[in-house]
Design a protein that fits this description.
Layout (H helix, E strand, L loop, with lengths): L22 H9 L14 E6 L2 E6 L2 H10 L4 E3 L1 H11 L8 H11 L5 H6 L1 H20 L3 E3 H18 L10 H11 L5 H4 L9 H29 L8 H6 L9 H15 L1 H15 L2 H16 L7 H4 L1 H13 L6 E5 L3 E4 L5 E4 L4 E4 L1 H4 L43 H18 E5 L6 E4 L3 E4 L3 E6 L2
Parallel strand pairs: 2-8
Antiparallel strand pairs: 1-2, 3-5, 4-12, 5-8, 6-7, 9-12, 10-11
The chain binds protoporphyrin IX containing FE.
């Protein structure tokens, strides 16, 4: 690390010295779970506590993380509260499926997510990024203030719509991006009734409001599937996108029609908001780190001047990749990876201390906490992308940095997301500079992803 450089410490809650009490726990949990975690969470390898009457284990120790996510993964289910929120929306999609259904779906879908297919999407990613940058020209000429967070949502949505359906979603009314946002805001949230584990017959008001949107959305996906199937049946040349690839899996050993629909919804839910948040936080962190941003800009200019294929950009631009990976360390889009043992389990640390992990009770890996943990990171609250440059990156332990999770349920879209990020960042930062203004005061809040409350107002201008 360079001693002469003043490193940026981006916005984050200061860890609590005392735990919140009584009603405050409910209030903070509903408002922003990131504000719950106290000093011990960032200093201890394992925390065990009672939370809303439940036994909760926070796994920071690499051995325990590995035990839960990798070595004993088959003996763990998804954390019940997460399933309560997501399962009504995503049903048997890969993110929420469990047991044999998950096994069969993951196996069937593996060929769709090979690096070869991700590479096949590079040109579409580039075309969408360039078209998007073209639309920002005017704002950049006027050095306008834009909401970088909302813009990144738009960009990743456009990339996904193109790679999923080649843009051909059967849209009857309204904007699909808006529909998804609505869905996530209403259904994709922990309802206070879930938190206190109220019986299922008590209505979850937040979720009821989202049901109508969900039905409309499913109809739209279903019509798009029918349309494509008819095109395939008539022998028409169809695009080689996710939709065609998924429809090709329909049948005995693959997926049934409902599962294909569930997975399309899952890719939209899991793949667009996550990448958008990571991109937005990267722009913000780079704006606070002029020294590293210059290195990123030089690298992009150098690589683009060679005319290299966008498929190669991720490998050819280690500074771009490090900027993105370090932003995901500080702001992991998925900040909670929750499990529960199917049967009573235990784990013993290197000093012989045994931790009981009762059946059905939560064991959570919190990338937000783990990525800022004082035992594993130097100056954890500072943005130092140098940690991820070749030569330094190899020293980062496999189980201390988990933006995409680990083990059999590791993110299936990780290669896709990293490639998309490199192409989007190189396209945008090759042309524009994003700076903070007096309004750039983002506050990270955990919803389904870690998002900046109030958006990310930034000034966009031309670099050249
Ligand atoms: C920066 C972007 C992304 C991040 C940070 C991210 C993060 C994650 C994490 C942490 C998990 C594991 C969850 C768990 O173990 O409980 C996961 C799973 C998953 N992700 Fe991603 N993801 C990203 C992009 C994508 C994209 C682009 C897609 C699809 C196009 C995608 C599809 C999925 C699916 C289907 C799963 C479930 C896999 C399974 O359970 O077998 N993700 N993601």
């Amino acid at each position: 690390m360079d001693k002469a450089v003043e490193y940026f410490e981006p916005a984050a809650p200061i860890p609590r010295n005392t735990p919140p009490s009584g009603l405050d726990v409910v209030r903070v949990t509903m408002r922003n779970p990131l504000e719950l975690w106290g000093e011990p969470s960032y200093n201890e390898p394992v925390i065990q506590a009672r939370f809303f009457g439940q036994h909760l284990t926070i796994a920071n120790h690499p051995g325990l993380v590995r035990h839960v996510l990798v070595d004993n993964a088959a003996r763990y289910g998804m954390q019940p509260v997460r399933q309560l929120v997501l399962k009504p929306i995503l049903r048997e999609g890969l993110l929420t499926a469990e047991g044999e259904n998950w096994k069969r779906s993951r196996k069937a879908m593996a060929p769709v997510f090979t690096p070869r297919h991700a590479r096949g999407f590079a040109q579409q990613m580039l075309a969408q990024s360039v078209a998007f940058a073209d639309r920002l020209e005017e704002d950049a000429s006027r050095a306008s203030e834009i909401n970088a967070s909302a813009l990144m949502t738009q960009l990743t949505y456009e990339v996904l719509a193109e790679t999923l359906f080649s843009g051909g979603i059967a849209r009857s009314d309204g904007d699909l991006g808006e529909l998804i946002d609505n869905l996530l805001k209403t259904m994709g949230r922990v309802d206070p009734m879930d938190l206190i584990q109220a019986p299922r017959w008590i209505p979850r008001l937040l979720r009821l409001r989202g049901l109508k949107t969900l039905r409309g959305f499913r109809d739209m996906v279903s019509r798009t599937m029918d349309q494509r199937k008819a095109e395939i049946a008539s022998g028409k040349q169809v695009p080689d996108d996710f939709l065609t690839l998924l429809l090709g899996l329909e049948g005995e050993a693959g997926l049934n029609r409902n599962e294909i629909e569930d997975n399309i919804l899952t890719f939209i839910g899991a793949g667009h908001e996550t990448t958008a948040r990571a991109l937005g936080w990267t722009l913000y962190c780079l704006a606070g780190s002029p020294h590293f941003r210059s290195l990123v800009e030089e690298e992009i200019d150098r690589v683009l001047a060679t005319g290299a294929d966008p498929v190669e950009w991720l490998d050819l631009m280690p500074h771009v990749r490090s900027a993105f990976e370090e932003a995901m360390r500080l702001y992991p889009p998925a900040s909670n990876i929750g499990r529960a043992p199917l049967e009573d389990d235990s784990w013993t640390d290197e000093n012989g201390k045994r931790y009981d992990l009762p059946a059905g009770e939560a064991v959570v890996v919190l990338p937000w906490v783990l990525h800022r943990h004082n035992l594993y990171w130097e100056n954890p609250r500072q943005y130092r992308p140098e940690r991820f440059l070749p030569g330094a990156r190899e020293k980062i332990g496999r189980f201390q940095y988990l933006p995409f999770g680990a083990g059999p349920r590791i993110c299936i879209g990780a290669t896709f997301a990293l490639q998309e990020a490199a192409i989007a960042l190189a396209t945008l930062l090759g042309r524009f500079r994003f700076d903070m203004t007096e309004n750039t005061r983002p506050w990270p809040v955990q919803r389904l992803t870690v998002q900046p409350a109030g958006g990310l107002p930034m000034r966009i201008s031309h670099r050249h």
